[in-house]
Amino acid sequence: MSSQSAAKKADHKPASNLSGQVKKDLYEVGEIPPLGHVPKNMYAWAIRE
Q: Where are the domains of the chain?
């Protein structure tokens, strides 16, 4: 069995939200989403010297 077919068969669920944070689609700069959550949109943040 290949690793791809094994990955398709595995039942992956998102990390549980233990901290009680609400999952949002957009987070402010400096705001950290819960572990395991990938927001739909994110603000760009460039650091220039």
A: 24-49
